[in-house]
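My current task is to audit a protein record that another person submitted. I have pasted the whole thing underneath without changing anything:
***
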Amino acid sequence: MRTTRILVVGVGSRLRGDDAAGPLTVDVLRDMLEREGHPPGTEINLIDADVMPENYTKPIQESGADAVFFIDAVDLGLPPGEVRIVPPERIDACLPSTHTLPMSHVMAYIKEAIPRVDLIGVQIRSAGLFEEMSEEVREACSRLAGTIVDGGWRGIPSA
Protein backbone atom coordinates (compact mmCIF):
# COMPACT_ATOMS: atom_id res chain seq x y z
CA MET A 1 0.00 0.00 0.00
CA ARG A 2 1.38 3.38 -1.04
CA THR A 3 1.59 6.10 1.60
CA THR A 4 -0.23 9.35 0.81
CA ARG A 5 2.04 12.30 1.58
CA ILE A 6 0.28 15.47 2.67
CA LEU A 7 2.00 18.77 3.33
CA VAL A 8 0.07 21.32 5.38
CA VAL A 9 1.30 24.91 5.14
CA GLY A 10 -0.06 27.34 7.71
CA VAL A 11 -0.15 30.93 6.49
CA GLY A 12 -0.92 34.03 8.54
CA SER A 13 0.21 36.45 11.18
CA ARG A 14 0.10 35.43 14.84
CA LEU A 15 -0.15 39.16 15.65
CA ARG A 16 -3.48 39.66 13.89
CA GLY A 17 -6.17 37.75 15.75
CA ASP A 18 -8.00 35.38 13.44
CA ASP A 19 -5.33 35.77 10.74
CA ALA A 20 -3.34 33.23 12.79
CA ALA A 21 -5.71 30.42 11.74
CA GLY A 22 -3.09 28.78 9.51
CA PRO A 23 -0.25 28.74 12.05
CA LEU A 24 -2.60 27.63 14.83
CA THR A 25 -3.87 24.71 12.73
CA VAL A 26 -0.24 23.66 12.14
CA ASP A 27 0.40 23.86 15.92
CA VAL A 28 -2.64 21.68 16.68
CA LEU A 29 -1.67 19.18 13.97
CA ARG A 30 1.90 18.99 15.32
CA ASP A 31 0.56 18.22 18.81
CA MET A 32 -1.87 15.60 17.47
CA LEU A 33 0.81 13.86 15.40
CA GLU A 34 3.26 13.83 18.31
CA ARG A 35 0.62 12.28 20.59
CA GLU A 36 -1.07 9.90 18.17
CA GLY A 37 1.36 9.41 15.29
CA HIS A 38 0.48 9.56 11.62
CA PRO A 39 -2.73 7.91 10.45
CA PRO A 40 -2.29 4.56 8.67
CA GLY A 41 -1.23 5.03 5.05
CA THR A 42 -0.68 8.76 5.46
CA GLU A 43 2.34 10.91 6.17
CA ILE A 44 1.56 14.49 7.19
CA ASN A 45 4.30 17.11 7.15
CA LEU A 46 3.94 20.67 8.39
CA ILE A 47 5.28 24.12 7.60
CA ASP A 48 4.43 27.33 9.47
CA ALA A 49 5.02 29.86 6.69
CA ASP A 50 3.95 32.93 8.70
CA VAL A 51 2.93 35.65 6.21
CA MET A 52 5.41 34.75 3.47
CA PRO A 53 4.57 31.38 1.91
CA GLU A 54 6.58 32.37 -1.15
CA ASN A 55 9.72 31.82 0.94
CA TYR A 56 8.85 28.10 1.09
CA THR A 57 8.07 27.38 -2.57
CA LYS A 58 11.28 25.42 -3.20
CA PRO A 59 10.97 23.10 -0.15
CA ILE A 60 7.28 22.63 -0.90
CA GLN A 61 7.95 21.70 -4.53
CA GLU A 62 10.74 19.32 -3.46
CA SER A 63 8.72 17.75 -0.64
CA GLY A 64 7.43 14.84 -2.70
CA ALA A 65 3.92 15.55 -1.38
CA ASP A 66 0.88 14.17 -3.15
CA ALA A 67 -1.19 17.09 -1.87
CA VAL A 68 -0.41 20.51 -0.39
CA PHE A 69 -3.00 22.27 1.74
CA PHE A 70 -2.43 25.92 2.47
CA ILE A 71 -4.42 26.87 5.56
CA ASP A 72 -5.20 30.57 5.76
CA ALA A 73 -7.68 33.03 7.19
CA VAL A 74 -10.24 34.19 4.62
CA ASP A 75 -13.15 36.56 4.38
CA LEU A 76 -15.85 34.89 2.33
CA GLY A 77 -18.74 36.57 4.14
CA LEU A 78 -19.57 33.35 6.02
CA PRO A 79 -20.11 32.93 9.76
CA PRO A 80 -16.79 33.05 11.68
CA GLY A 81 -15.10 29.67 11.90
CA GLU A 82 -16.61 28.20 8.71
CA VAL A 83 -14.07 26.19 6.71
CA ARG A 84 -14.06 25.99 2.91
CA ILE A 85 -11.79 25.02 0.05
CA VAL A 86 -11.38 28.24 -1.88
CA PRO A 87 -11.52 27.89 -5.67
CA PRO A 88 -8.52 29.40 -7.51
CA GLU A 89 -10.56 32.23 -9.03
CA ARG A 90 -11.65 33.46 -5.56
CA ILE A 91 -8.34 33.15 -3.70
CA ASP A 92 -6.86 36.63 -3.99
CA ALA A 93 -10.18 38.41 -3.39
CA CYS A 94 -10.92 36.69 -0.08
CA LEU A 95 -7.54 36.86 1.68
CA PRO A 96 -6.61 39.59 4.13
CA SER A 97 -3.88 41.74 2.60
CA THR A 98 -1.01 40.48 4.76
CA HIS A 99 0.80 38.58 1.97
CA THR A 100 3.61 40.08 -0.06
CA LEU A 101 2.91 37.96 -3.17
CA PRO A 102 -0.60 36.93 -4.24
CA MET A 103 -1.40 33.44 -2.94
CA SER A 104 -2.76 32.44 -6.36
CA HIS A 105 0.72 32.96 -7.85
CA VAL A 106 2.40 30.94 -5.12
CA MET A 107 -0.09 28.09 -5.56
CA ALA A 108 0.16 28.08 -9.37
CA TYR A 109 3.93 27.81 -9.15
CA ILE A 110 3.75 24.91 -6.68
CA LYS A 111 1.13 23.15 -8.80
CA GLU A 112 3.80 22.67 -11.46
CA ALA A 113 5.38 20.02 -9.18
CA ILE A 114 2.57 18.82 -6.88
CA PRO A 115 -0.59 17.14 -8.22
CA ARG A 116 -3.03 18.70 -5.73
CA VAL A 117 -2.68 22.18 -4.24
CA ASP A 118 -5.63 23.64 -2.32
CA LEU A 119 -6.31 26.64 -0.14
CA ILE A 120 -8.39 25.67 2.87
CA GLY A 121 -9.81 28.89 4.27
CA VAL A 122 -11.05 29.57 7.78
CA GLN A 123 -13.57 32.42 7.90
CA ILE A 124 -12.40 35.21 10.19
CA ARG A 125 -14.33 37.39 12.61
CA SER A 126 -11.57 40.01 12.80
CA ALA A 127 -7.86 40.24 12.00
CA GLY A 128 -6.80 43.50 13.61
CA LEU A 129 -3.27 44.02 14.87
CA PHE A 130 -2.71 42.65 18.41
CA GLU A 131 -6.27 41.30 18.67
CA GLU A 132 -7.01 37.97 20.34
CA MET A 133 -8.19 35.12 18.15
CA SER A 134 -11.96 34.59 18.25
CA GLU A 135 -13.26 31.45 19.91
CA GLU A 136 -15.04 30.41 16.68
CA VAL A 137 -11.79 30.43 14.70
CA ARG A 138 -9.82 28.74 17.49
CA GLU A 139 -12.38 25.89 17.59
CA ALA A 140 -12.44 25.69 13.77
CA CYS A 141 -8.65 25.23 13.69
CA SER A 142 -8.91 22.29 16.11
CA ARG A 143 -11.72 20.72 14.09
CA LEU A 144 -9.81 21.25 10.84
CA ALA A 145 -6.70 19.56 12.26
CA GLY A 146 -8.81 16.53 13.17
CA THR A 147 -10.41 16.55 9.72
CA ILE A 148 -7.00 16.49 8.05
CA VAL A 149 -5.72 13.67 10.26
CA ASP A 150 -8.80 11.48 9.73
CA GLY A 151 -8.85 12.01 5.94
CA GLY A 152 -12.05 14.04 6.05
CA TRP A 153 -10.36 16.83 4.06
CA ARG A 154 -11.84 15.22 0.97
CA GLY A 155 -15.29 16.31 2.19
CA ILE A 156 -14.53 19.97 2.93
CA PRO A 157 -17.04 21.98 0.88
CA SER A 158 -15.94 24.48 -1.73
CA ALA A 159 -16.67 28.17 -1.32
Remarks:
- The chain has one domain: 4-155.
- DSSP finds five helices and five strands in the chain.
- The first strand starts at residue 4 and ends at 10.
